[in-house]
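Spend some time on the protein that follows and explain the fold to me:
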Amino acid sequence: MNIDQSKIPQATAKRLPLYYRFLKNLHASGKQRVSSAELSDAVKVGSATIRRDFSYFGALGKKGYGYNVDYLLTFFRKTLDQDEMTNVMLIGVGNLGTAFLHYNFIKNNNTKISMAFDVNESKIGSEIGGVPVYDLDKLEEHVQEVGDIPVAILTVPAVAAQSITDRLIALGIKGILNFTPARLNVPEHIRIHHIDLAVELQSLVYFLKHYSVTQED
């Protein structure tokens, strides 16, 4: 069945990697089928939400039987392009950037930070977590040498974020994971996800103080 991925709600699309990770664990343990209730308990998403998410992709399970783990795993691997490697660049090798380089998404089959950039001379020319660190002043030169890198992680001071983003867009970047507090201006065809850790922490503390504790769908 051909599925128009652009018609899948963004909230559903964001949950797909979560489902895929859990299904990989189930497959590794030898489990052959799983119910939406079991999925719900594991990933902390309501079973009705899971059934609705899966319904966008057609008949993935059978009533009274649940879902075939191998089938779901194969389906979501293809849906998430897990067999195709996506190279990522990281801009800003401070404490957070360094942590990313050491972690380097080792549990993901299809995502890898392949190069990093910074202005600190003590870091330029080194390797961190096996990833080479280049001079940010030579960003264009190095990216053009290696070819297509569609995604960038931004962990730089907020004051520098927009100017660096403009350079990335000129290089043909398609998506940015922004860990700076800056709200970046980008063309409509650029996908950007903002992750402000301070705001997320403040939000968590607020909800703890003013709302009963529930799991978010």
